[in-house]
Amino acid sequence: MTENPLNALMNPRSIATVGAGNNPTKMGTIQALSIIKDGFKGKFYPVHPQDKTVLGHKAYPSVLDLPEAPDLAVFIVPTEMVLGLMEDFGKIGTRRAVVITAGFRETGAEGLALEKELKEITRRYGIRFLGPNCIGLVNTAIPLNLTVMPLMGPPGLLGMASQSGTYITQTLGLLRRRGIRFSKAISLGNEADIGINEALAYLGEDNETRAIALYIEGLQDPARFLEIARRITPHKPIVAQYVGGTAAGARAGSSHTGAMAGPDHLYDGLFKQAGIIRVYSVEDLYGLGWALATQPPLKGKRIGVITNSGGPGTAMSDTCNAGGLEVPVFSKELQQQIRPLIPKQGAYRNPVDLTFFLSAEAIGLTIPELVMKSGEVDGIVLHGAMGTGFMEELYIHTGEFLGISCEQFVEFAREDLTPALSLPGKYDLPFLVSSFLDENDDFNRGYREYNVPVYDSPEKTARAMNTLWEYRQIQQRAPAENSPLPPADEAAAALIAAAVEQGASILDEYSSKRVLACYGIPVSDEGMARTAGEAVEQARRIGYPVVLKGCSSEIAHKTGRGLIHLQIKDDEAAVRAFEAIQEAAGEALPVLVAQMVRGDRELVAGALRQPGFGPCVMFGLGGIFTEALRDTVFRMAPLDRVVALEMLESIRTKELLGEFRGMPAADRAALAAILQKTGNLLLLHPQIQEIDLNPIILAGSRPVVVDALITV
Amino acid sequence: MTENPLNALMNPRSIATVGAGNNPTKMGTIQALSIIKDGFKGKFYPVHPQDKTVLGHKAYPSVLDLPEAPDLAVFIVPTEMVLGLMEDFGKIGTRRAVVITAGFRETGAEGLALEKELKEITRRYGIRFLGPNCIGLVNTAIPLNLTVMPLMGPPGLLGMASQSGTYITQTLGLLRRRGIRFSKAISLGNEADIGINEALAYLGEDNETRAIALYIEGLQDPARFLEIARRITPHKPIVAQYVGGTAAGARAGSSHTGAMAGPDHLYDGLFKQAGIIRVYSVEDLYGLGWALATQPPLKGKRIGVITNSGGPGTAMSDTCNAGGLEVPVFSKELQQQIRPLIPKQGAYRNPVDLTFFLSAEAIGLTIPELVMKSGEVDGIVLHGAMGTGFMEELYIHTGEFLGISCEQFVEFAREDLTPALSLPGKYDLPFLVSSFLDENDDFNRGYREYNVPVYDSPEKTARAMNTLWEYRQIQQRAPAENSPLPPADEAAAALIAAAVEQGASILDEYSSKRVLACYGIPVSDEGMARTAGEAVEQARRIGYPVVLKGCSSEIAHKTGRGLIHLQIKDDEAAVRAFEAIQEAAGEALPVLVAQMVRGDRELVAGALRQPGFGPCVMFGLGGIFTEALRDTVFRMAPLDRVVALEMLESIRTKELLGEFRGMPAADRAALAAILQKTGNLLLLHPQIQEIDLNPIILAGSRPVVVDALITV
């Protein structure tokens, strides 16, 4: 495996900037200031054509004048200067760069040409770079901040790679207020060189990163992304937000990074396949990511709910329940321990409701500790620990009567929260907090310092716990069972080649199913007939009842044209049906005589190539409800057995696959094999564009492909 | 109509407190302080057994010593004192009270008895009250604040009624930071007297309330709630959060107000029927409620997206699209106007992306005004207007080089935002803002003063716009077509009475369908047969093919016992089937001979009485998928025609009801009539517990009830 270029790029010992000067209202200068002010300990070499010093550091008139080849070159110059300067850095031996400068691919054809030239130069020198059109990076371990906003604060545990620079820049203040801290953050820009896949692999390997957050507007290589992500998710959680699936979203996205968006349902399937937790807002990307980064595993479903008010307690309980978690009634013993600690009108069975009882010790220490050490819960959600923020609110009205200043009052009423704040870390259980107070409250500030996430609503707190549970399921997934692709079947290849040679865009139903059968996909017993006599012969061989269908590669949609005759029960009916088909077709038409497969449960499967996405497999509910229900799921081919089995459980109507209304459970192994093989077909036969198995009927437990169409 | 008791209760000219003293760390005192400090302009009479003054106001040793009967009595005393004091207030002539004191129904049997006594006393004196176990009320118009937290700020436009006191108390600071301001807020407590229905009616009538937010853990009278809400929603939006539908949630809820929770799907149906927008978090209750309270109607789908960064622009566009809104490409003309105002790498087609271009005027005034006055959009979402909050962030690093203080820098860089802030109010379009800065930023603070909602994420901003669209649909609902209940049918009543007299818990299929037919519900043509000869006779009358089913009130589930024979095509088969049924039953069993109704689309409907909820009608997808899909919706009976038609469009698989795979569209009027009549049946015949129509087959477009069961 080649070394990830980000290893060096994220950890430079020396940095040169081009474009930073001494005017602190210019973006380039502000970015250089972030390097200096946020504590970068390595060497800093500003290049400046006129000024002798930049921000108090000795400046160099040109790249070629630098005293050494810096580990990292940072470009904040106008677009037209990038190429020449990159050439200079190449010459002196710099091998990593961050190109913040915009004006490339995202601006149109001219910019695209420029970007190609840039890649040409960097390739020549072996330079690996982030951008162009990115906002920089953050590495809190060195610490290094290349963005325009101040970072500050201690290192964190959340690694981020973002296709929008905003989400590692404009949000830094917001994240600081919420106590969410990056380990590393990478703005990807146009991904002309280093892309999201390398960023993901890097964060996956990074020991300081405990969870990864991805903001995605489009993937250049989804297959590689899947491979990398799937290796990471069993031991490190990944959350991702994908936007851009709609036309306006794509327009907005392409306007700033030129990333290519794809259909939402494919991304959805890709994330599930990779074990990535999908979120639908940047707030959740950070907030749920932070819970995953900071909290120990949620080992079971049992949640203890502690609150100072019924409303938030109810909301947290309900939301946990909706996520598959339980809020079990405490044992009598635990109830008896809690009861004396709370007011009479409080609740102690779980949820514990202290009502508006203002003991920081009871809500923050005594009660949570009792619950945590009881062994009766696997995680805690807590609302209503209120400290100085609440006192300040109280002082607004009471101040006049207290006769002391607000500071004095707060100081007087303040309790030592250290025992409470350090409690969560003492037990190996997730502990999540809800508070309506802001970051000035000492409880909230303290929890955040102790890496206990604090959310501004009970529902978000509970949803974060649900996310920990979701990740637990991902961790416990069966390991991938990758088996090598089988060799391409020669008979199948011949059938496909024949169709292509004839200039057909599809294989007729019979040929389609023969191709499937070559790979062991179960299809209905059937044969072709060119005369009524042959039809009877086939029918007898198969056994009545049979179905007769007019069959040619020119006829894709047979129903409604009199070309399908079901429930043929004897020779006479077979002859009649054969003749009726000839008449309806108005020409001699070969007829497919097929076994009449019986079963009330119909499924669909298929495979397709999506531009920019690669071969995907589809599975869903079939029959007349297919269109109305749109209950289909997608995964990328090849499918390993585990993923194929997971697909079966991913449809909303999965209940149909179990024992159902007196019908036996579906043979899931056989269904999974059909999905795997359907995906493999696309990989083995590049001429195949699309495969459509519709319906697959469950004959008892056994799936049989009853109709199929291969598009070449 | 009787006068709403809240008219007087919310607007007292004089208030007496019992339980407030001079210790500003006691809750009772703090609540009295809220009256005084938040600016109540009427008379304030503290009752105190010892102190001569309370919080600087003359105190009275007992209620009987008060100089006049106060308009409102506020109880903050220990539980055991409430009854006696209420008696005293009754004697002196006070007719409105707020009982904040807890310890009643919510604590168990003893408390419940106490609550009954309290109601007895208040009834005797004609006193109407809020609580007990509530947290008070807020009326920003007087202004009056009875809660323990400071209110401050100008009056707002959002009216709130809450079954959790927390949501009008603990959140006041949070709401202040977010710029969300109540018109009125009512904590309902145990609802021993005044309940949520009166609160809702009051807020519906209140001119200062532009939108209503409800926090609900259970309804005592859902039918009345529906009636009131449905009258309000065409002209004033209502948002509601319902929690407590799960076991733990209900436990948490009952522990604090004793409200009765009910199945979530019934509440969901009730809200839809009433035109109430349901939300799933308290954050949305406030945040979306505030957009509804402050913004003009969203008259069309076209949204203009303005941003200083691609990520938020993409997220807002995508989220708007997901909610059914459009982000149309601007006309060439408008594009040409915008283009010179933004940097080269920006976007101007919609979304408008200024990139990181820091002109408050461009993003806050010039560009939005161009877009608003173009007539090309119906609403605006904006991200990235940054003022002093951003400057303060910038100063962190640049301060040293600027050589001025942060205050000086901010003052120097500050722009006059008034033209930008007053812009949204000049056009009759919704205008919603997203910002990652906090409430200290002058843009955010200013927008909030101008009633422009500011959200802390792009997705929330877009979701708020989607909610305005959702409300627009509600406003445009057809008006209710209430028709009086028809008289009870005598033949139907006789059939039901006969079953009840026989001690049967169900009506057999034949009788069930005869009851339905009495009301004109279309059922399959059928007749009873007690001999094989009668079976043949019925079959001939109906016309083959027919179905034969063993039929008695003791047999509810017929399949699997050999009691159903489908597709009977001639006399001989009818005789065979009749005999087979007798054999399978092992006794003489009457047989129902019914028309074989053909159709691929099966639906279900029904009606049931839910304890504490009243008669409800169910409609959904039928057939073998019923259980797997659970695609059912509920509404309360009686259904008017509009609601019955809406029910049809509320199932996920509603596409099946249109023209579908060569089948004609369902006769929606006939289906709606079935639903209305099914609901009426429960209202007309109190003995009926449940009606189950499963399946209803669409024979072409015509719905026919093929199997039915009435439980008595």
Task: Give a written overview of the molecule.
The structure is a homodimer. Chain A folds into four domains: about 5-290, NAD(P)-binding Rossmann-like Domain (Rossmann fold, 3-Layer(aba) Sandwich), CATH 3.40.50; about 295-475, 3-Layer(aba) Sandwich (Rossmann fold); about 525-595, ATP-grasp fold, A domain (Dna Ligase, domain 1, 2-Layer Sandwich), CATH 3.30.1490; about 600-710, D-amino Acid Aminotransferase, Chain A, domain 1 (2-Layer Sandwich), CATH 3.30.470.20. Helix content of chain A is about 40%, strand content about 20%. The first copy, chain A, has 25 helices and 31 strands. In chain A, the strands form six sheets. The first copy, chain A, has a seven-stranded mixed sheet, with helices on both faces. In chain A, strands 21, 26, 27, 28, 29, 30 and 31 form a seven-stranded antiparallel sheet that branches. In chain A, helix 11 (about 310-320) packs parallel to helix 18 (about 460-475). The longest helix of chain A has 18 residues, at about 460-475. The two termini of chain A are about 35 Å apart. The interface between A and B is large, with 116 and 114 residues.
